[in-house]
């Protein structure tokens, strides 16, 4: 109904094209700041039973914890669970991202759970392009038969 307020966002994996849902929020919002404020007020009354300036430290710690958790949640949700493709790692280091995908696809090949599963829609590489890639220094391609 209100797509802007939804916590998750529907999208597709950039590599295997499987539908996924990722968290929209990358950093804490005003509501997290408000929740941290409430938590620090509760902590303040639980420890000192009156207004105390040391509650500011508890507030900052609550903010740091919530920011850390929101960022970790976002970072873990970005990675595709099906093929293991990590778009952020791909931007920084494409070889490392490719090796992670290869590892995930090898695990998928070994796992009997996926024997009768729908095959992944991996990008096709033409024979000419594959030959060109083989002659380069790496020469390792992701198999399409998974
Ligand atoms: Zn994927």
Q: What's the gist of this structure?
A:
By secondary structure, this protein is mainly alpha-helical. 51% of the residues lie in helices and 7% in strands.
Compile the SSE list and pairings.
Layout: E1 8-12, E2 19-23, H1 30-47, H2 55-78, H3 87-92, H4 94-110, H5 127-135
Antiparallel strand pairs: 1-2
Bound molecules: zinc ion.
Largest sheet: 2 strands, antiparallel
From the N-terminal CA to the C-terminal CA, the straight-line distance is 38 Å
Strand proportion, as a percent range, falls in 5-15%
Strand arrangement across the biggest beta sheet: 1-2
The low-pLDDT segments are none
The overall pLDDT average reads 86
Helix count? 5
- Name the structural class: mainly alpha
**Number of beta-strand segments:** 2
| General form | elongated
Query: Into which percent range does the helicity of residues fall?
Result: 40-55%
Count of distinct structural domains: 2
Bound molecules: zinc ion
- The topology string of helices and strands comes to EEHHHHH
